[in-house]
């Protein structure tokens, strides 16, 4: 979704690129530490005198400014993350994104959203037409060589879930000396197309915007799907369908996030789940620590429309290079339910740490607030290691009451496409194995000499 506000019609991506983060931080009270680099260096060190907070600022080749705090793995991101953290805006909601845009518009001296709420906005159909026009170069899927090289069969591509959901796009360089046909997957939200996942043998990029857009398979409006399958890439969806086809083509819907979920993609997925009310949700992320982390992220946030028991509180799951943090915010202090939540995770820490010595990296629980505070926060920190994450995955499903409606399908290989190709190789070897000639009758019988 292009988050635009007022007359400027600007995307939040524009703020990330066009606002000089060093100058912005100076306005926010930081100063450049010249001892470690000037404002014209590739890496600029900024310090907030009152707190001692130190941020390292750089500008990427894409033009986007980013920062990180060498003392805090979670204190990093773009100008959007800085503003959201400072003002406590909730980026899991559209209101939070709008508040960030208003704050930055005010910094730039532009009109904010609130000053223009009475202006007539373009209709959803007009917005959709603009997005489609932006990507008009989509072509019907005729060149399937890339997909076939990944083991995807023509009958899979022509099946109900994937018809008109995958396209070709021809790229020609300015000198007209290079031409390639890409395979593209549209990323859409409720209002239409935002961007494309562009793939070929040596290329895997997103063109346009991802934000709250996801790639989805077809849905039969007369027969809602019984199952929703959530995975990282559209190739994984095609591979899983080929390996484990549903009983009827319309019974399963596929959703791909095109990599790491953004702040707003879970909102789109939740709206789809709430509208379609599937009997079951299947998480099919990769068989690696990041894939397991994504599973816990979904287990912490999803609210299935059909569940036999009450769903536990929504949580947030964050990850750095070596650590994973689970947060449950806004719990009312002192209530029997909150006390039960605390006991659950106190026992959970013992389960997470089972088999690890005291001097090893271990999970720990912190209860923030309580006492005179009306609000309690639970914070669980644990190493970002496979054994811890798998245990957390199971505990999160149990804690939120999702074990009967949300399942996890983990590929044996790294991802579902690797498993598909491995399965095809094994089938080919079995076909190429020479047949075993039957032995003559009686050859295996043992003959004993007569006495």
UniProtKB/TrEMBL annotation:
Pfam families in the record: Toprim_2 (PF13155)
Protein name: Toprim domain-containing protein
Gene3D superfamilies associated with the record: 3.40.1360.10
Region (Disordered): 413-451
């Amino acid at each position: 979704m292009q988050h635009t506000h007022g007359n400027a019609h600007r995307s939040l991506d524009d703020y990330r690129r066009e606002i000089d983060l060093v100058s912005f931080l100076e306005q926010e009270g930081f100063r450049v530490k010249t001892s470690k680099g000037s404002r014209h260096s590739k890496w600029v060190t900024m310090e907030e005198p009152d707190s001692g907070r130190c941020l390292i600022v750089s500008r990427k080749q894409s033009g986007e400014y980013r920062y990180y705090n060498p003392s805090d793995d979670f204190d990093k991101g773009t100008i959007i993350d800085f503003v959201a953290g400072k003002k406590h805006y909730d980026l899991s909601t559209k209101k939070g994104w709008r508040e960030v845009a208003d704050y930055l518009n005010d910094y730039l001296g532009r009109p904010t959203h609130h000053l223009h709420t009475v202006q007539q906005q373009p209709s959803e159909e007009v917005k959709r037409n603009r997005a489609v026009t932006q990507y008009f170069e989509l072509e019907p899927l005729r060149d399937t060589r890339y997909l076939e090289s990944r083991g995807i069969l023509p009958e899979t591509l022509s099946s109900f879930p994937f018809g008109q959901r995958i396209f070709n796009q021809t790229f020609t360089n300015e000198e007209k000396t290079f031409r390639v046909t890409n395979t593209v997957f549209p990323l859409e939200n409720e209002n239409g197309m935002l961007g494309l996942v562009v793939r070929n043998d040596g290329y895997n990029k997103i063109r346009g915007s991802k934000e709250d857009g996801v790639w989805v398979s077809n849905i039969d409006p007369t027969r809602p799907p019984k199952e929703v399958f959530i995975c990282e890439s559209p190739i994984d969806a095609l591979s899983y369908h080929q390996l484990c086809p549903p009983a009827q083509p319309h019974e399963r819907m596929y959703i791909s996030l095109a990599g790491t979920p953004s702040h707003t993609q879970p909102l789109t997925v939740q709206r789809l789940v709430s509208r379609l009310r599937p009997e079951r949700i299947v998480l099919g992320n990769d068989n690696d620590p990041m894939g397991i982390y994504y599973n816990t992220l979904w287990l912490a946030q999803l609210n299935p429309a059909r569940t036999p028991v009450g769903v536990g509180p929504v949580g947030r799951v964050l990850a750095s290079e070596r650590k994973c943090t689970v947060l449950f915010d806004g719990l009312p202090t002192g209530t029997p339910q909150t006390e039960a939540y605390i006991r659950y995770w106190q026992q959970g820490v013992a389960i997470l740490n089972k088999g690890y010595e005291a001097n090893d990296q271990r999970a720990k629980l912190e209860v923030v607030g309580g006492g005179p505070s009306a609000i309690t926060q639970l914070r669980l920190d644990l190493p970002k290691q496979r054994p811890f994450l798998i245990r957390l995955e199971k505990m999160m499903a149990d804690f939120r009451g999702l074990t009967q409606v949300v399942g996890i399908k983990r590929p044996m290989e790294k991802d579902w496409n690797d498993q598909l190709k491995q399965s095809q190789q094994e089938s080919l070897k079995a076909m190429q194995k020479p047949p075993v000639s039957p032995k003559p009758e009686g050859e295996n019988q043992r003959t004993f000499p007569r006495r």
